[in-house]
Design goal:
With 134 residues, the chain is an all-alpha fold. The protein is 84% helix and 0% strand. α1 runs antiparallel to α2, α2 runs antiparallel to α3 and α3 packs antiparallel against α4. The model has no long low-confidence stretch (mean pLDDT 79).
Length: 134
């Protein structure tokens, strides 16, 4: 038996498991009344990871069978790269925020400053990924 025969079902099963677990985390974080900065960043991380889990099986199916037009593939490819980049940048922002909290105990990062830093990195990343796939 070759791996190619099991490739699509494995990717689909892992995508469904990942999306359902991220949906469970999304429900948990949205249910909380008080949302500190780290919870908001984790919420963004959950959304971007869930979109990767949903889009990646479509990406693999297209490379194997090419059932869609090139426009659909370009759109899915763009959305996948933006979701992966968003996930990496959100994890980086979360790590920097936690580092600042631990290394400077009396420093409380403001939401405005964190969101400005996040957007300063995220917006150019979207621009770069969209130029690549146009």
């Amino acid at each position: 038996m070759r791996f190619e025969t099991f490739e699509i079902p494995i990717v689909i099963v892992l995508g469904v498991i990942g999306a359902s677990l991220n949906l469970l985390l999304l429900w948990y974080f949205l249910r909380r009344e008080r949302r500190p900065l780290s919870t908001q960043l984790l919420l963004l991380l959950v959304v971007s990871d869930m979109s990767v889990c949903i889009l990646y099986p479509v990406h693999v199916i297209y490379y194997r069978y090419k059932p869609f037009t090139d426009v659909v593939f370009s759109t899915v490819n763009l959305l996948t790269s933006v979701a992966v980049g968003s996930s990496a940048l959100t994890a980086t922002t979360l790590a920097i925020t936690r580092y600042l909290i631990v290394s400077r105990p009396f420093y409380i990062p403001s939401r405005k400053r964190t969101w400005v830093g996040f957007c300063a990195v995220f917006v150019p990343a979207i621009g770069i990924s969209s130029v690549t796939f146009v």
